[in-house]
Amino acid sequence: MQPGTTADLYRLLLSPVFLSASFSWLIAQLLKAIIEAFRNRMRGSRDFAETLLWKTGGMPSSHSSLVTALATSIGFRYGLSDPMFVLALFYGILIIRDALGVRRAAGLQAQALNRLGIELQRRQEVEFTLVKEVHGHTPSEVSVGVLLGFFIAVAFSML
């Protein structure tokens, strides 16, 4: 069989590694959208869809869920000594560290800058444009994402 055939695509889409990674991301985003809908009383399906497809930050961390499912399913399928598992493990650690550290810090700094800019605009009538507030994750959001990804990967690995 030649690489790149329909059969290869079919095997990819049904592989436990692909399924666990994609389902863990989808389920985490769905949970995030449901939680956001209850917390903030979303106005409609457009807000829900936007949260489902694009929103970063929030409970649970879909980044953490996806990379944990990826590493776990590769570990189950190919073993912990396989180079692909090592790659997925360190990729996951990097992504989780970024979600907890860099992105969270940047988001907090952007919030502070926006508050300062709004106050300066109010007091001094200086024009100020809000900066985008990138949302990172809290440790609890990451922990729930990691657990979700792990258990989804275990479930797909047992198929």
In short:
Helix content is 75%, strand content 0%. With 159 residues, it is mostly helical. It has a domain at 15-101 and 136-157.
Notes on the structure:
The protein has helices spanning 6-14, 16-40, 45-53, 62-78, 83-100, 102-124, 139-157. The relative contact order is 0.17. The longest helix has 25 residues, at 16-40. 75% of the residues lie in helices and 0% in strands. It has a domain at 15-101 and 136-157. It is built from 7 helices and no strands.
Keywords:
mainly alpha, 159 residues, 7 helices
User: How many distinct beta strands?
Assistant: 0
Note the beta-strand portion: under 5%
Secondary-structure element order, N to C: HHHHHHH
* Overall pLDDT score: 86
Based on CA inertia axes, which overall geometry fits?
Answer: elongated
Decide which structural class fits the backbone. Answer: mainly alpha
Radius of gyration: 19 Å
Helix content: over 70%
Helices, by number, come to 7
Task: Give unreliable regions as ranges.
Answer: none
Give the N-to-C terminal Cα separation. Answer: 25 Å
For the biggest sheet, the summary is: none
Describe how the helices and strands are arranged.
Elements: H1 6-14, H2 16-40, H3 45-53, H4 62-78, H5 83-100, H6 102-124, H7 139-157
Helix pairs in contact: 2-3, 2-4, 2-7, 4-5, 4-7, 5-6
